[in-house]
Specification:
- With 66 residues, the chain is mostly helical.
- It has one domain.
- Helix content is 82%, strand content 0%.
- The protein is built from three helices and no strands.
- The radius of gyration is 21 Å and the shape is rod-shaped.
- This is Ribbon-helix-helix protein, CopG family.
- Pfam families: RHH_1.
- InterPro entries: CopG (IPR002145), Ribbon_hlx_hlx (IPR010985).
Length: 66
């Protein structure tokens, strides 16, 4: 896979790679995997919130009218 970059991304990528002692490829790899994991976590939190809101909707409505 080829990755097209601009000068801003090149500069940031080079700085991160040097600071972390990693290759530029590894910096990109880790960034993508981290974002993937974070997106999955956000989905799970949202689903759990919806389940709990459904389960406790009557209590939440009563609390809202106090």
């Amino acid at each position: 896979m080829a990755l097209r970059t601009d000068s801003e991304l090149e500069q940031a990528l080079a700085a991160l790679a040097e600071r972390e002692g990693l290759s530029r490829q590894e910096v990109v790899r880790r960034a993508v995997l981290e974002r993937y994991e974070r997106a999955g976590h956000q989905d799970r939190v949202q689903e759990a919130g919806e389940r709990l809101a459904d389960r406790w909707s009557d209590v939440l409505q009563r609390l809202g009218t106090v």
